[in-house]
Fold this protein.
Amino acid sequence: MEKIAHELRKPFVCTAVRAVGTLKPEFNPEVKAFIPPQLKVRGTGFWLKHSEAFITCAHVVADIAQTPIELSGMLVVGGNGADYLKAVISVLDYMHDLAILHVEGSDEFLKEQSNQGFELINTPLRVGEKVAYAGFPFGNLLLNEKHTPTYSEGVIGTDVFAGEGSKFIQISGSIAGGYSGAPIVLKSDPSKVLAVVSNSPMEEVGVAGIFRGIHYSHIEKILDLIKS
């Protein structure tokens, strides 16, 4: 009997995220020559709908801003069905661990990508609501040929809380390095972002399956500053 392969249906959060990484030529001492640029995935990011703003975490790209390109490599955004394109850092918000990247491409391409992106949520959040997120944990280790992201789910674990001028949403769910910069969405409303995956508050809490998401209001404020 002929077997027909069907691609798994992907949640929206999976189709709309991209990998953030660097491309850097490497020297092969055995042949005494440079090999083609090698991709190193550093984290995750996503487009905002009807905007050319590409969002990720500041700690994903911060060291690139302070290192010569010949050492860090060229910053790129892509994967998940899209070509890897050169990107530059437009905004670094260290306090809230957010970064906005400008991805180089034609106006038509940027419009197409942003139209497939996320909106910011505008409804009240409730403890216990199910959320979903997708990204590129463990960088290159889990990359397949199509560079598709890994999907995960959790719940909002507690009320929104603030610390030293930063608002966070606490999520109960599995997390690993490489998810940083991933959008967190409600399962019931997957096209809208409520938070951005950041690093866990401490190693013990991370192991326990609890992590913080950067509140969407911080993205809103950065965009307002750019527009003004």
In short: The chain is about 20% helix and 45% strand.
